[in-house]
Amino acid sequence: MAVVAIYSLKGGVGKTTLAVNLAWCAAALSARRTLVWDLDPQAASTWLLGGEEQARDQAQAVFTRDVEVERLIRPTPYERIDLIGADASLRSLDRVFHELDKKKRLAKLVGSLDKAYDRLILDCPPGLTETSEQVMRAADLIVVPVPPSPLSTRAFEEVVRHLDGKRGHAALMPVHAMVDRRRKLHADALAAQPDWPAIPMASMVETMAARRAPVGSFAPRNPATRAFADLWQAVERRLK
């Protein structure tokens, strides 16, 4: 099983959009047995994948071993995609990790799922926190959405500096997110980093929330669907 974390220091950059659509690509296009693990207390991925009806306030309990992680796995409406949903209990997850003082607790839980799935997608909360440190040890690849803005670029550079010289962390894969090529600032950002994959700002992506579904499941020929598919292929190449 390969572990792909969708992470950014900054909020509001499209992490959940990437997590849900990459999971759909993994399952539908690559026939991978895929698990989405929502670590963000906002539970956006959980909501989009129809997991809000699961037991409440148990998401944190797997880290203290009060609940076995397998008990929280639920199917989704999509073939080969399962979900470990988030809930409000994750608001204190950083404190739990700090008190446990076990640097690889998430990695060990991830390892227990190794034979059941081919790909694990982690939808991560923003910030440089105890949770993000756990994610960086557990992941094989960290996909970082970077919208074309100075603040988002600064946030990505801060993550690069944070990881510089550290051992045992996953590789970073930056992605241009929410791109509008008509805007000069966006065009300049793409020109400055032409090797980064790019996901467009598109009305069809915004429709995800109304339909509560990955773009590819209802608009298979849309350019946004093609962009997510291309990004997934780039992720697969990096994992190899």
Q: Class by helix and strand content? A: alpha/beta
Low confidence ranges = none
Tell me the strand percentage band. Answer: 15-25%
Instruction: Name the helix and strand elements from N-terminus to C-terminus, one letter apiece.
Output: EHEHEEHHEHEHEHEHHH
Rg result: 17 Å
CATH architecture: 3-Layer(aba) Sandwich
Write down the CATH class: Alpha Beta
Which range best describes the helical content: under 10%, 10-25%, 25-40%, 40-55%, 55-70% or over 70%? 40-55%
Number of separate domains: 1
Give the overall pLDDT as a whole number: 94
Count of helical regions: 10
Quote the distance from N terminus to C terminus. 12 Å
> What would the principal axes of the Cα set say about the shape?
globular
Describe what you observe in this structure.
- Helix 1 (15-28) crosses helix 10 (223-239) and helix 4 runs parallel beside helix 5.
- The protein is 40% helix and 17% strand.
- It has ten helices and eight strands.
- The chain has helices at 15-28, 44-48, 93-100, 105-111, 130-138, 150-163, 184-192, 203-211, 215-218, 223-239, and strands at 2-6, 34-38, 73-75, 81-84, 119-123, 141-146, 171-179, 198-200.
- The chain is α/β, with parallel strands linked by helices and 240 residues long.
- It has an eight-stranded mixed beta sheet, sandwiched between helices.
- The chain has one domain (2-239): Rossmann fold (3-Layer(aba) Sandwich), CATH 3.40.50.300.
- The model has no long low-confidence stretch (mean pLDDT 94).
- It comes from Sphingomonas yantingensis.
- InterPro entries: AAA_dom (IPR025669), DNA_Partitioning_ATPase (IPR050678), P-loop_NTPase (IPR027417).
- Residues 1-162 form the AAA domain.
- This is Cellulose biosynthesis protein BcsQ.
